[in-house]
Amino acid sequence: MASISVRDVEKRFGNGPAVLRECNLDIADHEFLVLVGPSGSGKTTLLRIIAGLEAATSGEIYFGDRLVNDVDVGDRDIAMVFQNYGLYPHMTVRNNMAFGLRRRKLPKDAIDQKVREAATMLGIENLLDRRPRQLSGGQRQRVALGRAIVRDPAVFLLDEPLSNLDAHLRLQMRTEILRVHRAVTATTVYVTHDQVEAMTMGDRIAVMNNGLIQQVGTPEELYDRPVNRFVAGFIGTPAMGFLTCSVNRNGDRAELVRDGVCLRLTEEQSRKLTLPHGAAVVAGVRPENLRPVSADGADPELSVVKGAIEVVEPLGPEQHLVVDVGGEMVTARVDRDVAARRGEKVSLAVGAGRAHVFSIDSGEALL
Amino acid sequence: MTAVAAPVRLAGPGRLRRWRPGRAAVVALILVGIAVALAPVYWMLATSLKTPFAATSLTPSYFPHHLSMSNYNELLVKGVVPFKTYLANSVLTSVIASVVAVVISALAGYSFSRSRWRLRGPTSVAVLATQMLPLVVFVGPLYLLLLDAHLLNTYTGLVIGYTSFAIPFGSWLMKGFFDSVPVELEEAARVDGYGRLSILFRVVIPTVIPGLLTTGVFVFINSWNNLLYPLTLITNNSHQTLPPGLLDSFVGEFNTDWGGMMAAAVLTTIPLAVAFFAVQRYMVRGMTAGALAGT
Asked: Does B206 contact A53 at a Cβ distance shorter than 8 Å?
């Protein structure tokens, strides 16, 4: 097993712009780390550099204490699951899984046993003599996983392995992958653009954008303490709502105000926010921290956001209200019993200390 | 309780298509096209079964009134012309040319598809450009080269001629097949610990077998039908192939043995037809490989 260290990695293709910049990442032994970000953020490139399928323009990759920059991909003791599975179409499932083991010149009996064990773990024993084209998407995904785990690698790399599956199967395979990870305990790096996948699977998550690692942390850290507006908006469904406000200082307390909005900061938050009275900031509010209140009887001490309902999305146990607050949209996650109609005025209370504050220029978190 | 299946009526596209005048015209046009294409084949077959008198009659009949196997008998049993020698020479040179061309085209096609070397684009276009010139242009230089190498009147010389003309198109054909193989397959094999050559022969080549068959049959058909090269490069009758051999045997100064020639043509066509029908499914795919995303 191995820890992975990514040190100052940069990547350019030809003379083009850098697609990865100053990437630094430490992945502990046995950890399940998820690289998440939008398309083109550089997450797959970083994974391929860790795998050895791509060379870094500069920087270093360590597996444990071993510098692996010049180590061939076949000698890195890794296994990889590709986005479109990468199964050998002319081989049976059994041969697909055994192919890597044959290269290691393992005895035939040992290969058979390993293949059988992996197939049993994934419930594909009855598919061993089929070819990939005779399998469904979910079955192919299982075979791809089987081919990876059968080799008992030190590092397990998965490149958007669930992106070709339907929503139901994706959910099922998420559990399956976690079960496999617990069983094989290899250090795992998992690439996805789906933040729900990232939140539900990763011990830690590295959020990437424009070739930069924006933040690395546990799902809770990323959700509760995003370091910038990008991470705040990317993590969480529905996304955090953003409102441009100005700082209003009143003694020791500060509030963020604009037409129809008054977000009171706690004493601690007010102390941390060093901007002067009148400075412009971006306030961020998570959908679950907004709850409808009566416009008349609202507590004057309460933080309130007022606007008009633009969209009502009923989801069964709850509903999402997309509210237009002076041209900027925020989403509130409310109980299904709340009567809400499009065009209706609504007042939404924000829990104390629940507002996030970001710099209007850099997008960095200010609290 | 017994469930009774209600009668199902097919609706929309599942229903029988109605005959429309436009559709009938298209079918008629296709039938005419097929008739035009098959007419020479029929004429070849019919003439080969006619008696020598009927085959050269000034008022030819569309059907052989008396089926005669005499033309086949003279070719295969009596051995009036060295048909079997020509046939053996054609099989030998065409098969060897196909194998050699497939191996070279596969390696070149793989390089054009996967390698990233500087002059790859211009080189691949230059290779294809040779196909824009007619076969006859190459005969002179090829003759001189083989003369210098003492390879005139040899099977080797003929195979070189066939192969040299087949490789450019074969390389492009194979490039199309290699392009349709996902790079992830090779990357998966790299992760599994295999080297470049192992990956080529264990992973990539087995997935492009239809391409190899297509290229092989393409080269075989072209070599088999080639009249110009053996006519120019081979003067020894014992090394001669079918096309010039038949021309020489049946066309005289004052007389042409149409019946014998057509019987020989039928026998010559059979290996081609077998080869083509065996791989026609792959050939169509080969010609369109890479035309669609995901193919």
From this structure: no
Whether the per-residue pLDDT at B288 is higher than 80: the answer is no
Helices vs strands, H then E, count in chain B: 14, 0
Chain A residue numbers with beta carbons less than 8 Å from the beta carbon of B187 are 53, 73, 80, 82, 86
Confidence grade of residue B11 (pLDDT, cut at 50, 70, 90): very low
Q: Rounded to an integer, what distance in angstroms lies between the CA atom of residue B96 and that of residue A124? A: 45
pLDDT band for position B4 (50/70/90)? very low
- Gap from B38 CA to chain A (nearest CA, Å): 38
Q: How far apart are CA B287 and CA B284, in angstroms?
A: 5
Residue A284 near residue A229 (C-beta atoms within 8 A)? yes
Q: Which of B194, B203, B207 sits opposite A74 (nearest CB)?
A: B194
Whether residue A9 contacts residue A35, with contact meaning beta carbons closer than 8 Å, is answered with no
DSSP state of B77: I
Residue A9 has φ and ψ, to the nearest 5°, of: -80, 130
* pTM of the predicted protein model: 0.81
| Percent of chain A whose pLDDT exceeds 90 | 83
Average the pLDDT over B49-54 and give the result: 86
For residue B264, the 8-state DSSP code is: H
* Cross-chain residue pair B192–A103, CB shorter than 8 Å: yes
Longest CA–CA separation in chain B, Å: 91
For residue A73, give the nearest of B190, B206, B207 by CB distance: B190
> Helices B155-179 and B135-148, interaxial angle, to 10°?
130
Interface predicted TM-score (ipTM): 0.86
Distance (Å, rounded) from C-alpha A288 to C-alpha A237? 10
> Closest approach of chain B CAs to the CA of A282, in angstroms?
43
CB contact under 8 A, A74 and B192: yes
At residue B51 the predicted structure's pLDDT band, cuts being 50, 70 and 90, is confident
B295 contact residues in A (CB cutoff 8 A): none
The reported pLDDT for the residue numbered B293 is: 34
Which of B187, B192, B195 has its CB closest to that of A100? Answer: B192
Q: Dmax over Cα atoms in chain A, in whole Å?
A: 79
Q: What's the gap between Cα A14 and its chain centre?
A: 29
Tell me how far apart the alpha carbons of residues A139 and A127 are, in angstroms, rounded to a whole number: 8
Look at residue B194 in the predicted model and tell me its pLDDT.
Answer: 95
**A202-206, A241-245, A265-269, A296-300: range with lowest mean pLDDT:** A296-300
